[in-house]
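Q: Convert this sequence to structure tokens.
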Amino acid sequence: MRNERYENQQRMKSGLLGRATLEVEVTDISRHGLRLLVDEEELFLPFDEFPWFKEASVSAVLNVERQGKEHLYRPDLDVDLLGVDQASGTISARLRGKCP
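A:
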């Protein structure tokens, strides 16, 4: 008969440490737009479709939080990027603040 306490300890040790992270990174900013790397897929956000990024500071553009699989948030700009579709390379946005 196995020791139940020992089995519980072994199960606890085999669990993952920390929490899973959803990766997002700004990889390029040009005069035409910016590129995001989202879970190893690159998406381009042109300034003509996402105008609030054009005049924003670099630090504000780089400050992006992953809120969920299809939801990115820019806290410095108060902009939600929703509907991140990596398969088609498209993204839609909802602006909570005012557009410049």
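The helical segments are 4-13, 58-62.
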